[in-house]
Specification:
Alpha-Beta Plaits; 2 helices; five-stranded mixed beta sheet; about 90 residues
Length: about 90
């Protein structure tokens, strides 16, 4: 299982980014969470099959229609405590 911690910057709050990411992650069978940060970025822990993680990362670079992703920082991380993907 691959696990990555992401910090997504740009116009990513107030545009449905978390709901969109939750749907896409669940569609891909991934585990983890996504939440807003006080600095205006979105943070996510994404874990699962390496191909599915990479597919979500590709999607995250574009985001939902109203988002404008300027940068994504990713680091390897320990997997989440439980199954499923949730929005925080």
């Amino acid at each position: 299982m691959q696990a990555r911690l992401l910090r997504i910057e740009g116009r990513v709050q107030g545009v449905g980014y978390r709901d969109w990411m939750e749907r896409e992650a669940n569609r891909l069978g991934l585990h983890g969470w996504v939440r807003n940060q006080r600095d205006g970025s979105v943070q996510a822990l994404v874990a699962g099959d390496e191909d599915a993680v990479e597919a979500l990362l590709t999607l995250c670079r574009r985001g939902p229609p109203l988002a404008r992703v300027e940068a994504i920082t990713e680091t390897f991380a320990p997997p989440p405590d439980g199954p499923g993907f949730r929005r925080g």
